[in-house]
Each structure stands twice: as C-alpha cells, then as structure tokens.
Task: structure prediction
Amino acid sequence: MRRLAILFGSIALVGLATLALRATDRWPQIVSPYNNAMDHTLDLSAMAGLRLEALTVEGRSNTNPEDILASMDIERGTPILSINVGEAREALESLPWVKSAQVERQLPSAVHVVIEERVAYALWQRGKRYTLIDASGHSIVDVPGQIGELPLIVGNDAPTHAFELFETLKTEPELLSRVRGAVRIGERRWNIHFDSFESGIAVRMP
Result:
C-alpha cells in the first residue's frame, strides 16, 4: 500500500508539473522529456500492479471480441492508468454493431465494458447488395443475402421510413406475419408484398 501511495503521489506531481509547464512558453521544448517521464511513470505503475489483467464485456452478442480489443488498442499488461476511457468508448462506438458503450477502469487490474448493440430490424436491398438496418434506419453491416425472417425493404429512403410502416402493420399481426417485403416508390409510398415477392400479393399503399 505504501508503494502505491508513493506511486500515486509521483503521478500527481507529474500532473501538477504538466499544468504549470503548459502555462509557459517553454512547453514545446519540453514535450519530449515530459512524454518520456510519463512513460516511465506508467511503466512503474505497471510494475506496481496497475496493469491490465482482466477485461470483462457485458452486452456483447454480435460484436467480435477481437474487434473490441483492437478498437480499444489494449492488451494484457497494458498500464491501466494509460487507458483513456473516453477514447476507448468512442472507439467502441465506431464498431458496426455497437450503439453505445461505457468503459470503466477497476483498479488495480481490470477494465469493465458495457455495450448496447444495435438490433437488426430489416434487410435493405440495393441491387445485389444487402444491408442490415436497425429501427432508426442506421446501416449496421452488409450481409450475403436474406437472413431469417427479417422483412426485406427496397428503395433509397426505405430505411428511414421502414419503422413507421412496420409499426403500423403490427396492429394487424396476421397480415404482418405474411409480409415478405416492402418497396418504397417515389420516396412517398410503399408497395407491400405478401407471402412471396415472386408469386404473392402486392398491395399498393396510397
């Protein structure tokens, strides 16, 4: 404990010195020595036990664990005080499936991540390209073709209007269960296809 107290005291002194030096016109000349001092301090903190040994992730379903590690740019043994939780959160939220993220350091040796993933709501077709979208119309990832029971939507502005359409159809569960897709026409209305795109019934909405 005394060792850690001394270490934290050193880090605090470095921080105070940094603030003081930034206020002077000599800061550009001492950036490199300062960085070296910080690196040395972080190395000492890791030697004292403040290094990453465990990363726990809550809420992950579709996001690849390797992508999480790569986006956060951390690995076992990384000085835990060097991990910028704000930057790590932003990096995680740049991943395709991640809607929001929280990153928490748990001293001395763990980082806990909570992510909220996007939920695939429909499949957007543009020619031979298929993209999963969420309820807000946000594109998630491209996929090879139709997946499961997700409704197929077609049209340039289809993703931004699909939620409203399918929420309306939910008031008629029997009809909704027969919907195979919807085509946005002229960026103003829908053609809804029941049972099959090829041989089913197409209803032109006003």
